[in-house]
């Protein structure tokens, strides 16, 4: 080393590829300007001592030696060390405080046998370390927060054995810009696995076993620009996966298991420039899957199973107006139309190399084109795209154009005289079905070619591989301009048995042959289920002023709507007074501050397109008994009629009981009760009737009492005369008797007249009715069939509804059928106790009899109540007899 002792510039010493096992530090005593020394590919077992000038060395290369451990004492002399390469040694672990406080920026530990990292192993390098490489080791776990290196910018952990990354594993690496973890055995990334990497720009996770992309493990990567996920097992991209990665410019998902690109697969990636999805299993691309990728310039979809996206969709790439490169080679595309590439105004490179249709780049070299009316667009489109100098395309069919360049064929020659490619003639139809029923879709197509035909059915753009399909074919002759042509008509039938809700969707048939594929329109299947109650309203009795709660919930498909009615209508007193609350989410109907006008039958109706059901609940409002009118004391003359009123209110209606002078009331033939004991009528009042009368009303909620005092005073018209005036008294008595008999006579005459008059009227009516029936009858008269009884629940079609046909049970046990009339009411048809309908004559006779009896009763009661002067014993007895 003598020649170098006078060199003052930084010195690089290369001793690599020797068999050095030890070094004498004295050999380096003269190399005070030594800054870099390469000792790789030797046989060193420890970090060598390089003498007093080791403090000047900035780069130490010790790769490919036999070093087994890192010693803090051996590294302490290298005070200026910035790069340390210990790759390809035999180091098995890194213990705490293995490194002294050095200005180390680059630490390379690739291809060792490191299986564990002890906490604090890199602590002394926290202020300087920028690059750390731990590739090709044996790490199976990464302890959380092991890397407390705030200045680290690049971390490499590829080719280890890490299977799972826990949350906060990389917390503390605030300056990290790139992380490489390729070729591990990663299968799970927990939520927050990369949280804290707020400056991350590049994340490489290729060649692992990840199965899905979710926002949970991408949380916190707000500045990420490149994400490499190729060669994993990803089959799903969650809808909100990119919520925290909206600055991505490059996304690589190639060589995974993706079969679907949903509408939400790339939402939020408006800055994406390159998207790689090649070598997957993509066969389904939803409408609008690329919507929002407004800056995309390169799209790689090669080697997938794409067919209908190009053949059947209208402008699948229409949102990519900045796209320059599109790779579609290696798919199952059989035909393209003008609409296939609509919107790709900036396209410069198109690769559609399938069955010789297109070649890479902007070249077109094929001689197998079907030059019919559907290819008119191609020459015009090629010319507009400036592709013409690079195109060599000729027709293969029809025979008259075979071998001719598509640019030599005029627009009038692109005709559809025959149709070797299948043409859909019968489209499948949209249907609705009840759950559990069978459904059939039919689709037909015709073709003039004898090329073998294939049939497929798709649901929501995905092929039904295990569907029950029946195919038929028959020949028919079709006339045309060039004469008659034999055409084969194909019919394919899709049978769906016992459909479930999962059967809903859009169904489409695809009929293909060598010349291309034809797609039918999409027929929608809707599966319905009648509503059924999960919660039914129950009868409710509640005190006035409280809150009534009625529950009602139902299930069905589609989800039924719930509506309420009161007494068959929509008049809710509680609604008018803003006391009613409906809670749709809780399936509860509330009435606050309940009042007696809220009493009634409440009907809950559940309705969907399949039908409707109803359930009823009776609301009863309970009130304590009360006096609706104040009790008034009464004073009557002796012999007059006394009427004591006790008008009661309450719910349920209270029972009334009368007492006199706090003792049970002794009822005689002069005492009458009316209006459910609310009226106490005392005929021919006597002095003994005077006193305190107590009205006691009671129901389930309580009892209320009130007092009425009755005073009976002497009647001067009825008192016997003084002594010496007997003649006058006798005359007066005779006059009273005559008046009494006169009153009774009037009553009897009135009753007889009513009976006779009513009977005559109904005789005439019955006579004319029978005459009309005889005139209108025929000899062979069939028995009129009446509709069967219908259950008496209330069914409605919404909040506003009318009562449906049914029957109303009566209290007597009979039932009344009601039939809707032209008016707003209903006609009642009564039945007898045996259920037989009464004829018109019996019905009118009963009605007239009831009315007559009611009239007579009211007349007699009125006479008795307002008769001012009682008669003698004879007439009075007769009057009481008539009243009874």
UniProtKB/TrEMBL annotation:
It is a single-pass type I membrane protein. GO terms for cellular component: plasma membrane. Its main location: membrane. Residues 422-526, 531-620, 625-714 form the Ig-like domain. The chain crosses the membrane at residues 744-767. It is found in: Cell membrane. Keywords: Cell membrane, Disulfide bond, Glycoprotein, Immunoglobulin domain, Leucine-rich repeat, Membrane, Repeat, Signal, Transmembrane, Transmembrane helix. This is Leucine-rich repeats and immunoglobulin-like domains 3. It comes from Lates calcarifer.
């Amino acid at each position: 080393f003598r020649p170098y002792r006078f060199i003052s510039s930084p010195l690089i010493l290369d001793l690599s590829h020797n068999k050095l096992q030890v070094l004498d530090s004295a050999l380096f005593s003269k190399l005070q300007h030594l800054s870099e020394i390469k000792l790789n590919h030797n046989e060193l077992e420890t970090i060598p001592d390089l003498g007093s000038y080791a403090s000047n060395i900035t780069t130490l290369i010790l790769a490919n030696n036999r070093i087994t451990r890192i010693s803090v004492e051996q590294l302490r002399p290298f005070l200026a060390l910035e790069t340390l390469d210990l790759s390809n040694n035999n180091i098995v672990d890194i213990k705490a405080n293995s490194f002294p406080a050095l200005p180390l920026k680059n630490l390379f530990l690739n291809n060792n046998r490191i299986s564990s990292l002890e906490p604090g192993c890199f602590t002394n390098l926290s202020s300087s370390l920028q690059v750390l490489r731990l590739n090709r080791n044996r790490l199976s776990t990464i302890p959380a927060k092991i890397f407390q290196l705030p200045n680290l910018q690049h971390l490499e952990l590829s080719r280890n054995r890490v299977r799972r990354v826990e949350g906060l594993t990389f917390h503390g690496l605030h300056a990290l810009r790139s992380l490489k973890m390729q070729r591990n055995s990663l299968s799970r990334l927990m939520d927050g696995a990369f949280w804290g990497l707020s400056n991350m720009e590049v994340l490489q996770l290729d060649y692992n076993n990840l199965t899905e992309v979710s926002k949970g493990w991408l949380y916190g990567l707000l500045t990420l620009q490149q994400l490499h996920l190729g060669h994993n097992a990803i089959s799903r991209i969650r809808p909100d996966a990119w919520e925290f990665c909206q600055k991505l410019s490059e996304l690589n998902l190639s060589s995974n298991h993706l079969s679907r690109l949903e509408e939400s697969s790339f939402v939020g990636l408006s800055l994406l420039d390159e998207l790689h999805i090649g070598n997957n299993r993509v066969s389904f691309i939803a409408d609008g899957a690329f919507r929002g990728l407004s800056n995309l310039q390169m799209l790689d979809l090669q080697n997938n199973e794409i067919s209908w996206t190009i053949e059947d969709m209208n402008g699948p790439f229409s949102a990519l107006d900045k796209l320059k490169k599109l790779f579609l080679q290696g798919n199952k595309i059989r035909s393209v139309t003008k609409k296939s590439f609509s919107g790709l105004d900036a396209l410069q490179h198109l690769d559609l190399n399938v069955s010789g249709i297109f070649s890479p780049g902007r070249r077109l070299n094929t001689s197998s084109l079907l030059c019919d009316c559907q290819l008119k667009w191609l020459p015009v489109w090629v010319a507009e795209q400036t592709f013409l100098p690079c195109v060599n395309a000729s027709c293969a069919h029809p025979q008259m154009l075979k071998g001719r360049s598509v640019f030599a064929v005029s627009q009038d020659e692109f005709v559809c005289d025959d149709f070797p490619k299948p043409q859909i003639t019968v489209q499948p139809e949209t249907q609705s079905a009840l759950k559990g029923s069978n459904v059939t879709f039919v689709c037909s197509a015709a073709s003039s070619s004898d090329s073998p035909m294939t049939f497929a059915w798709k649901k929501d753009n995905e092929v039904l591989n295990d569907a029950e399909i029946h195919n038929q074919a028959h020949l028919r002759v079709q006339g045309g301009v060039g004469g008659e042509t034999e055409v084969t008509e194909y019919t394919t039938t899709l049978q769906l048995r016992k459909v479930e809700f999962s059967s809903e969707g859009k169904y489409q048939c695809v009929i293909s042959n060598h010349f291309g594929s034809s797609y039918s329109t999409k027929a929608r299947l809707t599966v319905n289920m009648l509503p059924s109650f999960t919660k039914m309203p129950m009868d409710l009795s509640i005190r006035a002023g409280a809150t009534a709660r009625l529950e009602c919930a139902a299930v069905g498909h589609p989800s039924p709507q719930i509506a309420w009615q009161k007494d068959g209508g929509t008049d809710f007193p509680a609604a008018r007074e803003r006391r009613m609350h409906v809670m749709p989410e809780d399936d509860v109907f509330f009435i606050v501050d309940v009042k007696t006008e809220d009493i009634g039958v409440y009907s809950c109706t559940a309705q969907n397109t399949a039908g409707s059901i109803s359930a009823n609940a009776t609301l009863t409002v309970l009130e304590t008994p009360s006096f609706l009118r104040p009790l008034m004391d009464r004073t009557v003359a002796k012999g007059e009629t006394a009427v004591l009123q006790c008008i009661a209110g309450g719910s349920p209606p209270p029972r009334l009981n009368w007492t006199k002078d706090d003792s049970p009331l002794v009822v005689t033939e002069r005492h009458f009760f009316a209006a459910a004991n609310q009226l106490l009528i005392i005929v021919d009042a006597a002095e003994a009737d005077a006193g305190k009368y107590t009205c006691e009303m009671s129901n389930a909620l309580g009892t209320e009492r009130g007092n009425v005092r009755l005073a009976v005073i002497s009647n001067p018209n009825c008192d016997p005369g003084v002594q010496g005036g007997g003649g006058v008294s006798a005359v007066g008595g005779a006059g009273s008797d005559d008046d009494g008999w006169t009153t009774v006579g009037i009553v009897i005459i009135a009753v007889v007249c009513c009976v006779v008059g009513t009977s005559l009227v109904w005789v005439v009516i019955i006579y004319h009715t029978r005459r009309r029936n005889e005139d209108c009858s025929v000899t062979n008269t069939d028995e009129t069939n009446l509709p069967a009884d219908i259950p008496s629940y209330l069914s409605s079609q919404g909040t506003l509804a009318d009562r449906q046909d049914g029957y109303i049970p009566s209290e007597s046990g009979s039932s009344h059928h009601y039939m809707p009339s032209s008016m707003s009411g209903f006609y009642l048809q009564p039945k007898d106790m045996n259920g037989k309908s009464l004829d018109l004559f019996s019905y009118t006779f009963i009605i007239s009899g009831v009315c007559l009896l009611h009239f007579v009763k009211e007349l007699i009661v009125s006479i008795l109540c307002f008769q001012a002067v009682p008669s003698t014993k004879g007439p009075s007895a007769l009057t009481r007899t008539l009243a009874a």
